[in-house]
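Narrative of accomplishments. A recurring question from our advisory board has been how the design workflow behaves on a single, concrete structure rather than in aggregate. To address it, we present the structure tokens for one chain from the evaluation set, followed by the sequence designed for it. No filtering or post-editing was applied between the two.
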């Protein structure tokens, strides 16, 4: 098997592996200085006590080794835990808006980097409109919860209102954020 074919199949070279793990202690030292907490968060979403678990296990399970989908899954779990209204809540408007905002931020960076990616641009626009509809619903039903979610996610309240509102359409009053 040629070297290019070997690399194109997703295998990593031995040199890459050596470089990766040679720099791992440096990254672990920098992380230890930045985070004095002896517990480290892992890919599994668990807090690992660094005093009792070997360093190799901590390095293998750390979030910096997580794939993009695993990191997104963990962010989604954290958002659900943060914005849920009850213990079994996963679909309230607040949770949906928080998850959509995270996906919008993720896709915005991708679309800025890949300007010709029209499909992701379309899906980004669809996500923004879906979030806007959910925020309009939340504003109409319970303005207090709307104000709380706008503050928590650092959104602009004007992001709910479209500039292309037809003439004569009834606009909802913009609530004041104190």
């Amino acid at each position: 098997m040629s070297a290019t074919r070997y690399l194109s199949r997703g295998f990593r070279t031995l040199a890459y592996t050596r470089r990766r793990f040679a720099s791992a202690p440096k990254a672990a030292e920098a992380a230890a200085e930045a985070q004095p907490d002896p517990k480290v968060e892992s890919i599994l979403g668990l807090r690992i006590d660094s005093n009792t678990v070997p360093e190799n296990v901590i390095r293998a399970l750390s979030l910096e080794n997580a794939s993009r989908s695993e990191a997104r899954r963990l962010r989604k779990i954290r958002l659900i835990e943060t914005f849920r209204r009850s213990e079994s809540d996963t679909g309230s408007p607040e949770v949906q808006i928080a998850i959509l905002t995270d996906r919008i931020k993720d896709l915005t960076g991708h679309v800025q980097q890949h300007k010709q990616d029209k499909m992701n641009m379309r899906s980004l626009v669809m996500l923004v409109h879906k979030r806007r509809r959910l925020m309009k619903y939340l504003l109409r039903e319970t303005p207090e919860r709307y104000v709380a979610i706008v503050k928590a996610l650092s959104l602009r309240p004007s992001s709910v209102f479209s500039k292309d509102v037809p003439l004569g359409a009834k606009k909802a009053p913009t609530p004041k954020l104190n």
